[in-house]
Write a structure and sequence with these properties.
Keywords: Methyltransferase, RNA-binding, rRNA processing, S-adenosyl-L-methionine, Transferase. One of its GO terms (cellular component) is cytosol. Specifically methylates the adenine in position 2030 of 23S rRNA. It is a single chain. The chain starts with a helix and ends with a strand. It has one domain: 3-Layer(aba) Sandwich (Rossmann fold). α10 links the parallel β6 and β7. It is of the alpha/beta class. It has twelve helices and ten strands. α2 packs across α6, α2 runs parallel beside α7 and α2 runs antiparallel to α12. The protein has an eight-stranded mixed sheet with strand order 5-4-1-6-7-9-8-10, sandwiched between helices. Strands 2-3 form a two-stranded antiparallel ribbon.
Length: 285
């Protein structure tokens, strides 16, 4: 499995992930105290959908492109979270070009306040250089470092509050993602009040069920699952769907996430039968 972002930028999974990330940070903004945003696999920061990698896959055509084509009335009737997301993308494209699509670090910085800080990891040297070029902000520390050891070195942050976005390319995280389970266990021990967000691909439902069982056995409480599947589970395509596992989601985030995904599903689904969007507690309080 390989999820190098240059090929997949702007697809349905990005849309889902970025809308929900913005809302997580909005929830943290409700309190006056500062927080830390940590991105374990920051990628390039921004992507040009008119260049070869994105054009080769064409995945953005069934992601951000579909939403960008909505008329003003449709956008106005969308949930506030969708409107915020599209407004940010439109503003960036007005400034830098219609083919530009940002990554998670850029979206996070748009939601963050002046008092908040970010730590972004990226271990691929060429991608890290692009990240340095695209993300220039005094609130951010960029690290060319393997997040599997880097994350544990920077938590808990001095701000005490914060969100960790874990979105690996799934080159080594095979089968039921044992590396991620171990990382989350160790990170949670160091920072039990942090909000941990794991993006994962859905290609094999049995594998996801094994991952969930492992997470349930960790003893970590308050685990929320948010999933969108644009194809039925058994469809032999590259990516049937994706999910976010959110540990310690903020108050009322689950209800908001459900509203967002139910609105996104009819706009992003690839088939009338078998597509789905769900928000459920894997482990409660």
């Amino acid at each position: 499995m390989n999820y190098r972002h240059h090929f997949h930028a702007g697809n349905f999974a990005d849309v889902m992930k970025h809308v929900l990330l913005l809302q997580l940070l909005n929830r943290l903004n409700a309190k006056d105290k500062p927080y830390r945003y940590i991105d374990t696999h920051g990628g390039a920061g921004k992507y040009n959908l008119s260049e070869a990698p994105a054009q080769k896959s064409g995945e953005f055509l069934t992601g951000i492109h579909r939403l960008a084509q909505l008329d003003q009335a449709q956008k106005k009737n969308a949930p506030e979270a969708i409107q915020q997301y599209l407004t940010l993308v439109d503003a960036l494209r007005e400034q830098e070009g219609k083919g530009i699509y940002p990554g998670s670090p850029w979206f996070a910085l748009q939601a963050m306040r002046e008092i908040d800080k970010a730590t972004i990891f990226e271990m691929q040297p060429d991608v890290f250089q692009q990240l340095r070029h695209h993300i220039r902000d005094r609130r951010v520390g960029l690290h060319e470092r393997d997040a599997y050891e880097g994350l544990l070195a920077v938590i808990p942050p001095k701000e005490k509050r914060g969100v960790v976005m874990i979105d690996p390319p799934y080159e080594v995280e095979r089968k039921d993602f044992p590396q991620l389970v171990e990382l989350l266990q160790n990170a949670y021990k160091k920072w039990a009040t942090g909000v941990f967000v794991v993006w994962y691909p859905i290609k094999d439902r049995a594998m996801i069920e094994r991952f969930e069982k492992k997470m349930m056995k960790t003893g970590i409480r308050r685990q929320l699952i948010c999933e969108i599947c644009v194809w039925p589970d058994d469809t032999p395509v590259g990516l049937n769907g994706c999910g976010l596992l959110v540990i310690n989601p903020p108050w009322q985030f689950a209800e908001q996430a459900d509203e967002i995904l139910q609105w996104l599903l009819p706009h992003l689904k690839m088939t009338e039968a078998g597509a789905s969007a769900t928000v459920r507690w894997l482990v409660g309080e």
